[in-house]
Write a structure and sequence with these properties.
Keywords: Carbohydrate metabolism, Hydrolase, Metal-binding. This protein is of the alpha/beta class. It has nine helices and 20 strands.
């Protein structure tokens, strides 16, 4: 593979450098002088974005099979996402199985002109029927046999569950033993049940604040458990799902909050009707909703998430960590989410308005 050289402002794990980045499929060398802020005369190179909660994009939904997964991966790559987790919806078991088979088939083909698919975020069917949000009413209690069947079909990386549902608290250590990240979400659990789930091995919260028991000073709920005890949590920084004040409170309380899009098939598409699992959702005025007005995922892309975080007052370096390094670290992906020698050459090049100029996956510039 040909060696590529970029002259840019480079965000490294040790801070900004102005200099040269040389890479083929991996970063081979990084040379330059330390700087406090990016030089406006040069473009900005950041690690590629990593989205751990993606249902769809480009008109395609992950539940529809391999071709849909390839389509959504291409759409999100055009917005700087170089790696993602294809995310399921609650559905009858046979439909979840078919979706997992489709993700596995798409992964076997490699990234092509899209983002790398690192595996699956299983969001449903192990949720609370009281906190469905936009999930269909097809929840049921988890079993070890079902878990093993799902794991045999595709590489599960993250599992969302409601810890208060029958048998789920006892199941968490077995999920963790299989190398899965367990997240608490779509749950009516109390503060105490949330703390117990964290003690059992749960490591994060799915779209914090949304579809979970909220914070009250005498009943802190799952939000209170997260703010008091969590190291990791997802947030959807689209300006609709979470008020800026709540988002800033979470960023202050939880050390390694990472951004996700929770994107649906509507991402990258004009207003209209789209599929989200078994349901029809409507993309209008920047949001995605069910017919009754319930928020149903988003049309967010990670480049917009980065700009939104910076607009809230985060430094570009901090915002970059929350769309790349922190999600990579959360999955244990030590060669992604950073610009350093030996890391995979998954990176984005931006101008000083934080608009994308180029996206590279495994050292290859993708068409835009």
């Amino acid at each position: 593979m040909t060696l590529t050289t970029l002259h840019a402002n480079l965000l490294t794990p040790d801070g900004w450098r102005r200099g040269l980045l040389r890479f083929d499929a991996q970063i081979q060398a990084l040379d330059g002088d330390p700087i406090e802020q990016p030089d406006p005369a040069l473009p900005i190179a950041l690690p590629g974005f990593i989205d751990l909660h993606v249902h769809g994009g480009g008109g395609a939904d992950a539940m529809e099979g391999a071709n849909a997964v390839r389509t959504l991966a291409r759409l999100h790559a055009r917005h700087g996402t170089t790696a993602l987790l294809a995310t399921t919806m609650t559905a009858p078991t046979a439909e979840v199985q078919q979706a997992l088979d489709g993700v596995a088939a798409a992964m076997a083909d490699g990234p092509g002109d899209g983002a790398r698919v690192l595996g699956v975020h299983l969001e449903g069917p192990w949720l609370s029927p009281q906190r469905l949000g936009a999930q269909p009413p097809d929840t049921h209690a988890a079993t070890l046999a079902e878990l093993d069947d799902f794991c045999a079909r595709a590489p599960l990386r993250v599992v969302t569950l409601a810890p208060e549902e029958r048998g789920h608290l006892a199941l968490i250590p077995q999920l963790v033993a299989r190398g899965l990240r367990v997240q608490i979400g779509h749950s009516e659990a109390s503060y105490e049940q949330g703390v117990a789930a964290l003690a059992a091995g749960a490591s994060g919260f799915t779209h914090l604040f949304n579809a979970m028991s909220g914070l009250h000073h005498r009943a802190p709920g799952l939000v209170g458990a997260a703010l008091a005890h969590a190291q990791h949590a997802e947030l959807i920084p689209d300006g609709l799902h979470v008020h800026p004040g709540a988002l800033l409170a979470a960023l202050r309380a939880i050390p390694r909050v990472h951004a996700v899009t929770d994107a649906t098939a509507a991402a990258g598409m004009p207003d209209g009707a789209f599929r989200l699992g078994r349901q029809t959702v409507h993309h209008c005025a920047g949001g995605v909703r069910l017919a009754d007005g319930t928020l149903a995922g988003s049309a967010l892309t990670m480049d917009r998430a980065l700009r939104h975080l910076v607009g809230l007052g985060l430094s570009l370096a901090d915002a970059s960590d929350r769309v790349s390094r922190f999600p990579a670290d959360y999955l244990g992906e030590t060669t992604r989410g950073r610009l350093s020698p030996g890391a995979d050459a998954d990176l984005v090049l931006l101008d000083h308005h934080l608009q994308l100029q180029s996206v590279f996956v495994a050292g290859r510039e993708l068409p835009r």
